[in-house]
Amino acid sequence: MLLCRHVFNPVAENSKYQYCKKCGKAILAPCIHDWVESYNVELADEDDNIVGYTVVYICDICKNYKKLEISI
Question: Do 67 and 40 reside in the same domain of the chain?
């Protein structure tokens, strides 16, 4: 259906897709991220004083990542 206003079913267990109730179109289901800290790095100034941290998190499910920078 070309002009369908999609209404998607809930994600079925063990499925990566959601299907439209009206036309059956499939989309990749959004990930419910399970963030795990991968590593962190200390940020220092020219005098070797710690001025912050960079922490990288990786999703255990989809492997996307996010970076968090913390200044102190």
Answer: yes
